[in-house]
Structures are given as structure tokens and as C-alpha cells.
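Whiteboard transcription, Tuesday session. T.W. wrote the C-alpha cells on the left side:
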């Protein structure tokens, strides 16, 4: 039996990425969508072939024919509405970042224990086969001893109406796209950073960070990244060890309609001409994520990515904000 999904809100990522991914997958079906505007919900339902539309989130949560909820609401609404969904008997896949800080995120651990419902952060990169392959290469010693991970993520957006420019709604680039290199450096190092350093530039118009650079010190090495909401769009990651490098192009938003690749380079030719290309079949990373979450619900298994991991990630983000204020290394 397929997992029956309800969608809380008509966010762009829900309409363009997650709903189509669930609908094209093997394990789930979208049966309802809710918005604070019934007209907006009806329009989304008609466009995407969703049977039911609700004009409030409460109505959707009261629908007994929904097994799981996807929560793509603004950051400050992630925890409260996820908890309400769990208390209504629904499993929850919640957009990243899971909360605005670690203390808030910890409430979801308690809610899981209290309700017995699964809850997971929608960190779709963690279940992408290419990232899984990169970690296996590191584990197998293909780059020698892991020492460094360097990443970059940027786009350009100056719209005052965008939720990422609203401080009270959990705006700013570090919470938005800084999330990715933080969670994936922890994924690749398979450890928590022992201390972090951060530098933020704040947009004076919006009061949120538009440029962030960070250093995460792990027991085995360092992760370094820059992210920005107001620079030319670009994405890249390099994972470096004592005997080689793994290069990942378009690491965070790999298109689903084409194969993706890793570059495994021993550095014998500085231009990378000796690099080996390792290819992965085209896949929808949102679809992989939703299918694995649905399978866990059906089988009674734990969430593929435990909510404790999301709390740990928020601790790192919290420490980076503190470091930007103090000018010192901070411990997550």
C-alpha cells in the first residue's frame, strides 16, 4: 500500500520538486494539499492532479486518510506545524533547516518519543546515490586519509518579499544554503566538528546574512565553505585526502534528467587530465528521499536520516552564528 501524503502549504519547492517526485515514485501518492488560501490550494491541486484541497493546515491534519505530511513552510513554522502533524498521527518530512536553532529542533525528538511518529529533515542530498558513492570512496581509502572538504554555494536574490530576507522567519543564507555544506561535511567526515569559526556579512536592508564563510574543524581535518544569496549562481565541492581528490559538480541541485558524475583524481596531472570519471544514473533526489521515507513508514523502520542528526546540524549552525559575533572559535 502506498503512503498517502498531505502537503502543508503551496511553497515553490513543494509544487516544483517534492510533489512531482512523490507522484512519480513507487511508494507514495499525494492525496491532499493545504494553503491559508483555499483558492491557492485548489489551483495547486488542479495543476498537479491532487484529489483534495484545504483552506487551512488544521483541516489537512484532521484528514484521517493522510499517513504522512511534507512541511515546506517558512523556517520559523517548521517545528510548530511538524509537532502538530505528529500529534495528529502523521509522520513528517520537514524541509531544511529543521528549525531556527538547536533548542527548537530538540522539541522534535521529544515529539517523536511522545507520538511514535517518524520525523525527518528533508536533507535530500544525504540519500542521493552520488553522495553515497562519494562517502564509500572515502571509506575505501581511494583518496588516502581524508583531510579536507571545500565547498561553495551561491545564488542571487534581492527580492524584499522573499522569506529568506525576513529575519523573524528564519531568513539568511547560512540557514538556507549554508545548511548543505555543513550537513554534508558531517556526512563525509562521519563525525561532529570539535570547533567552528564563522564570518558573516549582513545585508543592511534586510538584516540577514548574505555572505557567509566558515571553517569546521573535525578530528581528521577541516571543512571550509562559502555561501551567498547575492553572488553569481555556482555550486562546487572538493573532497581531498593524502592520495587523491573527489570533485563533485552541481553537488546540491543536480538535475534529475541526466546522469551525474564524480571525478576521482590522484593529482598526477595538475589540470586533472588523469582524473577518473565515475558516473551515476539519472535520479530525482527528492524522489529517492520520499521513497525511502515512505518505505520506512510501511516497514515500521526508523527514519532513514534520524532527527538527532538534524539537531546536531543545528548545533553547528548555532555555533557559527556565535563565532561570527564573538570573532572566536566556538564549540557546537
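and on the right, the sequence the group agreed on:
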Amino acid at each position: 500500500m502506498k503512503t498517502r501524503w498531505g502537503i502543508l502549504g503551496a511553497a515553490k519547492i513543494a509544487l516544483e520538486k517534492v510533489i512531482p517526485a512523490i507522484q512519480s515514485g513507487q511508494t507514495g501518492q499525494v492525496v491532499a494539499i493545504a494553503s491559508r488560501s483555499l483558492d491557492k490550494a485548489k489551483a495547486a491541486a488542479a495543476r498537479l492532479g491532487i484529489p483534495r484541497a484545504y483552506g487551512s493546515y488544521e483541516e489537512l491534519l484532521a484528514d484521517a486518510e493522510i499517513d504522512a505530511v511534507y512541511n515546506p513552510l517558512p523556517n520559523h513554522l517548521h517545528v510548530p506545524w511538524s509537532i502538530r502533524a505528529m500529534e495528529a498521527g502523521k509522520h513528517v518530512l520537514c524541509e531544511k533547516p529543521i528549525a531556527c536553532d538547536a533548542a527548537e529542533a530538540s522539541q522534535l525528538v521529544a515529539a517523536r518519543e511522545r507520538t511514535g511518529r517518524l520525523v525527518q529533515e528533508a536533507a535530500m542530498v544525504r540519500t542521493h546515490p552520488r553522495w553515497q558513492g562519494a562517502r564509500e570512496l572515502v571509506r575505501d581509502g581511494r583518496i588516502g586519509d581524508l583531510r579536507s572538504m571545500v565547498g561553495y554555494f551561491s545564488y542571487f536574490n534581492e527580492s524584499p518579499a522573499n522569506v529568506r530576507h525576513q529575519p523573524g522567519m528564519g531568513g539568511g543564507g547560512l540557514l538556507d544554503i549554508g545548511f548543505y555544506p555543513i550537513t554534508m561535511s558531517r556526512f563525509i567526515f562521519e563525525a561532529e566538528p570539535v570547533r567552528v569559526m564563522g564570518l558573516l556579512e549582513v545585508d543592511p536592508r534586510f538584516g540577514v546574512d548574505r555572505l557567509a564563510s566558515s571553517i569546521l574543524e573535525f578530528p581528521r581535518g577541516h571543512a571550509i565553505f562559502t555561501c551567498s544569496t547575492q553572488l553569481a549562481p555556482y555550486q562546487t565541492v572538493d573532497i581531498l585526502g593524502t592520495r587523491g581528490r573527489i570533485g563533485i559538480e552541481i553537488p546540491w541541485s543536480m538535475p534529475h534528467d541526466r546522469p551525474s558524475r564524480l571525478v576521482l583524481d590522484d593529482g598526477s596531472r595538475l589540470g586533472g587530465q588523469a582524473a577518473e570519471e565515475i558516473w551515476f544514473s539519472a535520479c530525482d533526489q527528492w524522489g529517492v528521499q520520499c521513497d525511502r521515507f515512505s518505505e520506512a513508514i510501511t516497514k515500521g523502520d526508523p527514519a532513514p536520516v534520524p532527527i538527532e542528526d538534524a539537531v546536531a546540524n543545528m548545533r553547528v549552525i548555532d555555533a557559527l552564528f556565535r563565532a561570527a559575533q564573538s570573532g572566536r572559535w566556538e564549540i557546537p
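Someone added at the bottom: The chain has a mean pLDDT of 97.
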